[in-house]
Amino acid sequence: MRRLITAALVALTLDARPAAATPPPLEGVRRVVFLGDSITYAGQFAEDVEAVLRVSDPALRCEFLNVGLPSETVSGLSEPGHAGGQFPRPDLHERLDRVLVKTKPDLVVACYGMNDGIYHPFREDRFAKYRDGIKRLREKVTASGAKILHVTPSVFDPVPIKSQTLPAGLDEYRRPYEGYDDVLDRYSQWLTGQRAEGWDVVDVHGPMKRSLDAGRAKAPNFRLADDGVHVNAQGHWLIADAILRHWGVADGEKVLAADPHGAEVLALVQQKQRSLKDAWLTATGHRRPGMSPGRPLDQALGTAAELDAKIEKLLRRTP
Hints:
Layout: H1 2-16, E1 31-36, H2 38-42, H3 44-56, E2 63-66, H4 92-103, E3 107-111, H5 124-143, E4 147-151, H6 180-193, E5 200-202, H7 205-218, H8 233-246, H9 252-258, H10 262-284, H11 297-315
């Protein structure tokens, strides 16, 4: 009996111990690099993520670099007449080695898929190219010593561009296929399915689709992208929110709103990231025509350091 009582007391004591503290997001990570297409290059979701993390953890010392490239694919595919026939879509793998060597990330956040089905109906050979491209990306990032967070593609909405889409069954598509989001559904499902293989994957496609359906049920003109592809500020926030929740930070909008300097921090983060992205794209090199060269990287980095100092001063709550 005495042994049973002792065992029970030990069990109660163990149950009463405080749970282990959850480590802060990005513990040990000093540089996060965002890779992707024009949605990533636009960068609002990356800016939102950095601002919320900086406010929620003022001790955070982590760089966030955006080297997304408009039009890019991970599959190496390009549709007929892309950009009016001016140039084919850039292939991430042409520049990936240089990006990894020059940016030296601890963590890569990669969002591909929107361009990889080249706006055509589903076809297995294109899907295979996407899967192969994602696996090659993952292998190279891992070999560099960095971790990778895969992000599913955002939603394609044919409603705002209904007059510009094409039906199924055509031999060629120089305008988007009207059911292209079904293709992105399959790409997203495959990517989230890789969690069973130990991949770190966050789904933004599902939440965005549910948000679009719910918004349109209330207002037929509700949209997340005026052109069906390039998401607006609300769409970018949905991407940021999914990433933040994946990292254990819920209600990011409330985090920013509750901080007396939240809006100022966000504005400074936006200024910093928008100054840096073209400089880093030029420094790492790419083959897409029409991009701004930005400022010389050393100058952009100097400005970024000044803006970071302002952010840190705000978050120390010093006058």
